[in-house]
C-alpha cells in the first residue's frame, strides 16, 4: 500500500495543492516571529512595572515631612564648644 506523501505545512506543496498556498502555511515574519513578539511583550510589561514601582514608592511619601530627629547637639554647637575650649586654654 502506497501512501501519498504530503508536504509539511510550511512547505509550498504541490502546484495544484490548495493547502500549500494557505496563508498559515508559512508565517510572514519567519520562524522566530513569535519569540520576538513575546520578548517585546515581556520588555513592555517589565518597563511598565518598573515605572509603576518607582512612581508608587516615590509618590507615596511627602517630601516636606522630615522623618528623623537629630539626637545630640548640632555640629554648630559642637564646633563652638571646641573653639571656646581652645580659647580658654590659650587665654
Mind explaining what this structure looks like?
By secondary structure, the protein is mainly alpha-helical. It has a domain at 32-90. Helix content is 46%, strand content 0%. The N and C termini lie far apart (121 Å).
Features:
single chain; 91 residues; mainly alpha; 2 helices; rod-shaped
Task: Note the topology.
Blueprint: H1 33-58, H2 75-90
Short description:
By secondary structure, this protein is mainly α. It is built from two helices and no strands. It has a domain of 59 residues.
Indicate the structural class.
mainly alpha
Radius of gyration: 37 Å
Residue share in helix:
40-55%
Strand content: under 5%
Number of strands: 0
Largest sheet: none
Element-level helix/strand string: HH
Question: Tally the helices: what do you get?
Answer: 2
How far apart are the termini? Answer: 121 Å
Principal-axis shape:
rod-shaped
Enumerate the spans where pLDDT stays under 50 for 5 or more consecutive residues: none
> What is the residue-averaged pLDDT?
75
Amino acid at each position: 500500500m502506497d501512501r501519498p506523501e504530503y508536504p509539511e505545512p510550511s512547505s509550498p506543496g504541490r502546484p495544484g495543492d490548495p493547502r500549500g498556498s494557505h496563508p498559515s502555511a508559512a508565517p510572514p515574519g519567519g520562524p522566530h516571529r513569535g519569540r520576538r513578539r513575546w520578548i517585546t511583550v515581556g520588555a513592555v510589561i517589565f518597563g511598565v512595572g518598573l515605572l509603576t514601582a518607582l512612581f508608587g514608592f516615590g509618590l507615596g511619601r511627602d517630601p516636606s515631612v522630615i522623618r528623623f530627629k537629630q539626637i545630640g547637639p548640632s555640629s554648630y554647637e559642637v564646633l563652638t564648644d571646641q573653639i571656646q575650649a581652645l580659647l580658654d586654654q590659650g587665654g
